[in-house]
Amino acid sequence: MTSAAPENQPTVGAESATVPTSAAAVQPAVVPGLDHAWVVDVVRRTLSEDLGGDPGRDVTSQATIAVSSGAVAHLVARQAGVVAGLVVVQEVVDQVSARFGLGQVTVDLDVQDGTRVEAGRRLAVLTGPVQVLLMAERSLLNLASRASGVATATRAWADRLDGTGATVLDTRKTTPGLRALEKYAVRAGGGTNKRMGLYDVAMVKDNHVVAAGSVTAAVAAVRAAFPDVLVQVEADTLDQALEAVAAGATFLLLDNMPTDVLASTVAAVRAGEATTGRIELEATGNLTLDRAAEVARTGVDYMSVGGLTHSAPILDLALDLVAR
Questions:
Q1: CA angle 146, 149, 154 (to 5 degrees)
Q2: How far is it, in rounded angstroms, from Cα 32 to Cα 294?
Q3: pLDDT tens, position by position, 53-82
Q4: pTM value?
Q5: 163-310 falls under which CATH superfamily?
């Protein structure tokens, strides 16, 4: 099976952002991680937003809590779900400590990203200066809660598609500045990244077809300009799908098709694979969990769901001081 994002293409903020080669790769034992330099940068920007600069200040905590005061805090899940983003917690507290010249905070994780947890589950124990814990609290919760919400939404889809042969993909409909984290969270939830951006995979959509004059012309133009890049083509009709295959596309986005039309299109493309070779097929648009099994039965390889990242509610997490 062809990868949806060529392995030799660069990625931003992720060690892996490719479609797996089999359904067995949907939920890896270890979640491919985040690029450390990206984590350092996003944490720096997140803290500056909350503290008002670098180093900034927390006028409440710095006024009411002695620098020498230490404590133990528990990071807990207030809701059931799938956790993600715990990998950024240590970086958040480390940067706060460094900004203000305070002592280090030790972070002991009880669970790993990708773990399904119940409400009330302790996720980590943080030990160190109270000022650091409270100045870091909201930033680490914002990042981990957001990522955990995405992972939880993704897991619902991955569970629904389990055993169908189809895999859930994300899209570029992400929060500005947090794409790498949200796509990491999709991986933690059992989904797969389709592409990281406009730079690593070409996707010929309706506006490109209008601009180029036809599907065939658009595919040819991309291949001429960027011969090393995988070309995906969006098709709204059976005729467009067959034109795209004839033009050499090996990955089709079958967009907003009723189930019967989708099934007919999949069958027609599959029928020609003895000549064309394997064509990867993705259903996209107007997908819901209620339709997931129905769409999977058409024989598509993937379903892309923008809602994994653009509409997932956060998972409510809390940081509670338990001892001083």
A1: 130
A2: 30
A3: 999 999 999 999 999 999 999 999 999 999
A4: 0.90
A5: Aldolase class I (3.20.20.70)
Strand partners, 77: 317
Considering the candidates 205, 223, 270, 291, report the single residue annotated as catalytic: 205
Out of 58, 255, 282, 301, the active site residue is 255
173 is catalytic: yes
155-188 pLDDT, tens digit per residue, is: 999 999 999 999 999 999 999 999 999 999 999 9
Confidence of residue 228 (pLDDT cuts 50, 70, 90): very high
Judge whether residue 248 has pLDDT over 50. Answer: yes
Q: Where do the structural domains in the chain lie, given as residue ranges? A: 36-155+312-323, 163-310
**Is 138 marked active-site?**
yes
Could you say which of 137, 182, 200, 234 is catalytic?
Answer: 234
Residue 260 banded pLDDT, cuts 50, 70, 90: very high
Q: What span, in angstroms and rounded, lies between the C-alpha atoms of 295 and 261?
A: 11
Active site residue 194: no
- Catalytic residue from among 172, 173, 223, 291: 173
Assess whether the region 36-155+312-323 and the region 163-310 belong to the same CATH fold: no
Torsion angle (degrees, nearest 10) of CA 104, 105, 107, 108: 90
State in words which class domain 36-155+312-323 has. alpha beta
Active-site residue identified among 58, 113, 121, 138: 138
Q: Are 150 and 307 in contact (CB under 8 A)?
A: no
